[in-house]
Hints:
CATH architecture of the largest domain: Up-down Bundle
Number of domains: 4
Radius of gyration: 30 Å
Helix content: 55-70%
Number of strands: 9
Strand content: 5-15%
Structural class: alpha+beta
Number of helices: 22
Distance between the termini: 27 Å
Largest sheet: 5 strands, antiparallel
CATH superfamily of the largest domain: Multidrug efflux transporter AcrB transmembrane domain
CATH topology of the largest domain: Multidrug efflux transporter AcrB transmembrane fold
Mean pLDDT: 83
Strand order of the largest sheet: 7-6-8-5-9
Amino acid sequence: MKRTPTWLRIVVPAVLIAIWFGLGSVGGPYFGRVSEVSSNDATTFLPASADATKVQKLLVDFSDSSAIPAIVLLTRDGGLTTSDRDAATRIVSSLALTPGVAKGVSPAIASRDGKAIEIVVPIESKDAGVTVKAIRASLAADAFGGLRHYVTGPAGFTADLTAAFGGIDGVLLLAALGAVFVILLIVYRSPLLPVIVLLTSVFALSASILVVWWLAKAGVVTLNGQVQGILFILVIGAATDYSLLYVSRYREALRDNARRWEATLAALRGSLAPIAASGGTVIVGLLCLLFSDLNSNRALGPVGVIGVALAVLAALTLLPALLMVFGRAAFWPIRPRFGSEHPKLVGVGARGLWARVGRLVSRRSRIVWVASVLLLVIGAGGLLQLNATGVSQSDLILAKSEARDGQNALGTHFPGGSGSPAIIVGSAAHITGLADAVTTTEGVESVAAVAKGSPTGTLPLGAAGNVALYGGAKPTISGGQVMLQATLSSAADSAKAESTVVALRAAVTKVDPHALVGGVTATAIDTNQTSIDDRNKIIPIVLAVILVILMLLLRAVIAPLILIASVILSFGASLGVSALVFTGIFNFPGADPSVPLFGFVFLVALGIDYNIFLMTRVREESVRFGTRPGIVRGLGLTGGVITSAGIVLAATFAALSVIPILFLVQIAFIVAFGVLVDTLLVRSLLVPALAHDIGRRIWWPSKLGRVDVVPDEEATRR
């Protein structure tokens, strides 16, 4: 065999390392610039067909800006004083001059109980977080003689949400990388190898951020805090998983090959197919999110695909190049020597955990898989406690939230929906009927028409929609339509408000069939309903697509069906246990409808990953030794690396919990727990035991499923 030229063995790794280090140096600074191309506005998550989205787009036709309201609330338990009212007047004047505040700051409005004042402040949506932060700082600088103050409303919640996501490119990244480093240090007992693996993950993430940033800048993909956080974790977890598989093969190859180049080629031959297949499965699973009608779900599809693709590419190019440079020194102090014996993981004389597991699976296969199934079914019983119908906006943030505290205080002194009205758009010819329908709907406190000519931007309407009493100002008409604002008696993010908006939609469409109802509450309703529809539609698609991939990969029907069934059962148990934990331990108020969908996509795609690692090796061993011996050998040969990979991935997803957002904390627990179930129970016991019990028929209809393989005497001794 012709030896590869020395210069080529030097140039190829050097070029690959230079390319990746270049991507890392360029992409690294973009970590701090993600906010430039991301948005956490709830309406950007909705499909264009949703009523709330249509109303949001019509806002600019009835006002001079696309501002969102903030509410400055001033309270004093003993009752407002004259100096308090004077202070409120000064605050109104100051707010009007604050950068980022649009025209139309309302006058100070006193509550009926005389204990609070509210000021509605329109804030330009582009820099809502920055503007709210500036207003809060300005109010905090003046004690106002003990007058308590809050900045709440939609803009206040947006600011708090943005602040909660602020730790993504700092705390989250450090937590994830720190957890991975500690686990790798324990697994490899080498100070250098964990650094090489983490460098691979970090450069894959840097390249992903660079690509995603420019695509978001061009409007090709949508980016928000939710997508950003999942991208970070997904890339680090996937790149580390694939790196572990390659490292395992490379360590084996160093024992069989004297030269690093030959060992690298051998490791690539052994790991290319399972890494590519596993990455391809995750990519296809993520692409299924493109069938979603919810923009926030659909946005994760292409962004996640970019991240996973670059994770695969880094694990198959940068990592081999780095390991070739360091060679056996990467494993110091336990270096794999050329010609040394491989650890006896399977066969005669095998010792260790996975040898014992293999013997258990082969001797008690039916008992093992039946017991495993029963355990998972018991866990799945917790699904009866699952409440994934949506949560209020104030419950999304788990950390301290001034907007949430202010909303609670607002509901004590004013109608709960103050500052966050339901917005009705309908025919100007039906304004009287629309006003009647709105004011007679239970849960509506008052109604006003948007009017550019009014000092406050709105005109109060009576039950008959009469505006003649309000000077020369008239409701604004655009395209033959008017816009009404209905103040609800309940907080905009409450269940009562949602019931009111549902009734409101029914009432106004009786007057004008084309009338639309939007606003904060309507956005929540449309988001939840779309999430439920997406969940029911996408889960079957993901299952069908992954089943086809497995059939093509394993060239069988029975084995893929077993793998899909095991992952579904594992997901059910993981979600069931999570529901019990969320309700009984954490006392969470519920979950967003998209939580089960995201959990399913990640657990199915990533859970199948480990089964692919296992079953591709099982098939490889089955061709040489027969199915039942091949199952035991495949389990023994992959047990350590897959378990390590599973623990690393679980720790990586668990790091999401450092971001105090309910959705991310729930996803962190579901995926981390589910990955451990897949790794330690499903892949280690259930799948091998069931496959061993069935025997060679798992490869039906391929030849391997019809003909017994008789290993030669030498192979049997290995």
